[in-house]
Each structure stands twice: as structure tokens, then as C-alpha cells.
């Protein structure tokens, strides 16, 4: 299992379009991927789960991946979250 904390730098946070892109990227990996904000942990492959976190720019979240390609999943999703638009 790989776990890392990351600050969201996307201008709009993980809302609507960015959340959809995040979920699309997460679904490229075989590993189970989760996103945690405070005490709430959701499946990163679920658009409804991501939207329910209401993640704004500047929020620190925890990315958790478990499986064959866990490190690739975390690396890919961290780079997506940290893009400054």
C-alpha cells in the first residue's frame, strides 16, 4: 500500500470537470485507489465520491493506492492534482 499527502493546486479544486478527469485517470489503474479528506475516505474511481468531498484549491488530501500498480497510480494522480492551471 502506498499513501501520500498532497495539496490540491488546481484553480477550481476537484470540482466538476477536474473531478471527472481525476476519476478517469484513477480508472486507468488496476489498483484500488482512495482519496481521503479529513476523516472521509472515498473510492477515487467514483465521481460521486470525489464530488462529495468538495475539495477546494489549497486543500491537503491523502491519496491511497493498493495493488499491482499502486506507485504508478499515486504518481499519476499526484501530478494531476498539482497542476497549476
From TrEMBL:
Lineage: Bacteria, Bacillati, Bacillota, Bacilli, Bacillales
Domain HPr: 1-85
Pfam families per UniProt: PTS-HPr
Record's protein name: Phosphocarrier protein Chr
Alphabetical list of InterPro entries matching this protein: HPr (IPR050399), HPr-like (IPR000032), HPr-like_sf (IPR035895), PTS_HPr_Ser_P_site (IPR002114)
Source organism of the structure: Ureibacillus sinduriensis BLB-1 = JCM 15800
Source taxon at top rank: Bacteria
Amino acid at each position: 500500500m502506498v499513501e501520500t499527502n498532497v495539496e490540491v493546486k488546481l484553480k477550481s479544486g476537484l470540482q466538476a470537470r477536474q473531478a471527472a478527469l481525476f476519476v478517469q485517470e484513477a480508472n486507468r489503474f488496476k489498483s484500488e485507489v482512495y482519496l481521503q479528506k479529513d476523516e472521509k475516505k472515498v473510492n477515487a474511481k467514483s465521481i460521486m465520491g470525489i464530488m462529495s468531498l468538495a475539495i477546494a484549491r489549497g486543500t491537503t488530501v491523502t491519496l491511497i493506492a493498493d495493488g499491482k500498480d499502486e506507485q504508478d497510480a499515486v504518481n499519476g494522480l499526484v501530478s494531476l492534482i498539482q497542476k497549476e492551471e
